Structure formats: C-alpha cells, structure tokens
Inverse folding.
C-alpha cells in the first residue's frame, strides 16, 4: 500500500463563478495537515473560472472523485446557479453523507441547504445570504463559526480560514493547528472595523446592500426554486 | 477606447511551488477594486502548480504581460528557485520599476531584494526568512506591514490580505476598502494566539523551526548566490 493511499482526503468543491478565497483560504490550512491530502473537485476536468477571474484546474471530476473524510463547500455568486444544478446538488449530498466533517463556507451553506443537509440545524453563512437558509429548514446563525453535529458553517469568505484552523485542531491536534497558524503567520491586523454589518459604519453597510440589490433578487428567486425542489424530493 | 483599456491593472506574479494564499489573498481584495482589473502573470502560459498542489492558469506570460500600476510578488518554497532564475528576477525588476505600488508578500520580498529593489529600504517578510533580507541591502522589519516609499512588504501568507486592504484604501478610498472588507467579512477570529513567533507558545516555534531546518539551509545558500549575482550586476 502506498503512503498516498493511507492519507485522509479533504475534498474542496470547485464550480464556475464561485469566490476563490472561500476555497483557497481553507486549502492553505488543510493542505498543511500531516497525513492528509487535498483534492479539488469540479463537475468536469475542465479549468474553472472563479468570480474575479482566477482560473483553477481541478484535480478530479465528479466521476473520478475520491470519498472525502472532510468535504468543503465554498460559495460566491456562482452559488445561485449551483443550487439549481441537480448534478452539483446530488454530488454535495452524496459526498456530505459519506464525510466525517462537512464544511460550508460563505454562501456554500446554501448549497448544503439545497442538498437537504441543514434541516433543523443551526447554520451560518455570508451575512447577506444568511436569512435565506431558513428556506431550507435551517436555523440561521450570525456567528462567524457555527458548528452543529458534523456540519461546520462559516460567515463570508475569510471566515473559512478561521474555520479550517478550528477543524485542523479537531482532526489533528491543537499543536498541529497552532503550528499551521504560525506557518501562515495568521495574526490578523484588519485595517478597519468593517468586517461585519454589526461593526461596520452604517453608511458602508447601506452601500454594500445597494451594490448587491440586483444580485440579491436573483438569489432569492434561485433559493425559492431550490427549496421547492427539495420539498418535492422529501415528499 | 474600451472600458477594459481604461482600467488600471494589478499584476500578480505566479511561479512554480509558490504559496497560493500569498497570491489569492490579495487577489480577493484587489479583484474587487472598482476601475481596476487583475492579471495573473507567469513565465509562460502553462498552468502552474503551487506548493500545496493547487494548479492555477495564468492570464498572461512575461512576453504578453501588461504594465502594472500595482505589482504583487508572492513567496513560498518556490522563491528559492525564483531568486536564481534570471528571467523571473529581471521581470520583477522591470515591472516593479514601472509600477506605482510594489507589493512583496511573505518571502516575495526576497525576490524584490534579489532584483535590487530593497537596498537601504525597510522591508518585512515571512518570520522565518526576514533576517535574510539584509543580504540584499535591506533593513529587515518585524512588523506585519512595512511601507518604505512605494514598496509595501508584509509578513507571511495571510498578511497579504491586511496589506491589500491597506493599499485599497490608498489607491481607491477608505470607504471602498471598508466595503471590500465587509464583502469578504474580514473580522478575523483566529482560534489560537499562535500567529507570530512572538506570541506563539515557544514549543510550537521550536517545532516549526525544526520542521523547516532543511529548507532553511537551501534558502540560505540560494540567497547567498542571488546576493552575489546582484553585487556583480551593480559593480
């Protein structure tokens, strides 16, 4: 048996128009876990363009994907299409059911919701999409990190780094997680107090909401459709 | 004239075996700047494998690269080869000389040093490589963010996010930077006090140093060679 085979696998879902840091943040932490390997998995093996233009090459496609001990589902604008894509939703359900740890980052929790994984569960998500989780039967949480059973959901984008370090402490040890935190020199100095709608200046929150009003309307419609599909599936 | 042409360009250097979060962290911030576009530039147009396995497709190669208003030079294990690669070092010097803002993230500052850009300048870098900056005539700094003239250098990996937000406030406005910080929900909750060698438990620092002793020896030799080359160039 090769060493590769003995390693546990963390799978990270890649899909078009997603927010790359939702994936690359946790990847930087999980990629440093001893005795683990990471696998970037996409619907096909074609390179995938993320929302700000970064093009990532997947390691595996849905057909060749490993079974994951830990499965990371990121979010971003592409989530609105992903929750309506049965192939992606089915894959998320399938790999989540087989995983010991399930990770929803940012609006990735909407994908977990669409797959029926959050019914009756407390769940976090990007502050602009959190309320929509209730449509999938989840109990939305405002915390940066929310843990319910084996489902770990986080706030937007950068929260995935905090969550990955927290999970690293669980799957390996606090010492390993601390060593990774030191390697990536994670002693943050955010220049402003603006990282959540609760601490940001009200004017900034207002602008952020105005700038995304159109996208929000598309998302609300997509979630409604995805929620109806889930109900049909459960009937 | 197209809108694309009017946009300012932030160039981000991609090279083999680099640490992906050094690039993807700043990219997530800079990619959200209004009136800017980002360009991932590598020696050739071939996909590039980063140190933990993520494969990124460049947007441009050295021959087709734009001139950058802001140029981001990341680091990682691959830095040791990059500082000995004349093609990369020359490109870094050339694009930095044309840029209004130069960014060295993590050990990326070693690359700026090898290109002769840090002589007499205060400069930061990853805590395990900072001291080596003096070989290129720089004055090493322990701060997470160091600014000297138009050269912005940061500590390891995650420090690039803080630096990019700081620069966003300069090239756009504080309001824009705050809005980006809110979009990426950057209100960090690191699980441990372990993000610098000054705050981490001594045992963790000791382990981190032991784990990288071999790599450190390779780096020391590479920096020595690169520093000699730079001296020859300056004679």
């Amino acid at each position: 048996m090769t060493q590769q085979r003995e390693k546990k696998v963390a799978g990270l879902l890649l899909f078009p128009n997603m927010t790359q840091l939702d994936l690359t943040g946790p990847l930087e932490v999980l990629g440093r876990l001893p005795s683990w390997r990471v696998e970037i998995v996409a619907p096909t093996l074609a390179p995938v363009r993320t929302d700000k233009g970064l093009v990532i090459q997947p390691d595996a496609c849905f057909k060749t994907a490993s079974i994951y001990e830990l499965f990371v589902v990121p979010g971003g604008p592409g989530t609105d299409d992903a929750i309506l894509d049965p192939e992606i939703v089915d894959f998320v359900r399938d790999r989540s059911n087989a995983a010991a740890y399930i990770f929803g980052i940012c609006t990735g929790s909407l994908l977990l919701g669409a797959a029926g994984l959050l019914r009756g569960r407390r769940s976090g998500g990007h502050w602009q999409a959190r309320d929509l989780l209730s449509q999938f039967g989840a109990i939305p949480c405002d915390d940066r990190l929310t843990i319910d059973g084996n489902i770990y959901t986080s706030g937007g984008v950068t929260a995935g780094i905090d969550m990955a370090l927290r999970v690293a402490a669980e799957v390996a040890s606090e010492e390993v997680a601390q060593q990774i935190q030191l390697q990536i020199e994670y002693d943050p100095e955010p220049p402003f107090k603006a990282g959540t709608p609760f601490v940001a200046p009200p004017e900034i929150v207002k602008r952020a909401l105005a700038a995304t009003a159109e996208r929000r309307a598309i998302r609300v419609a997509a979630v409604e459709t995805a929620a109806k599909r889930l109900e049909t599936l459960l009937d």
In short: Chain B touches chain A through 65 residues (CB under 8 Å).
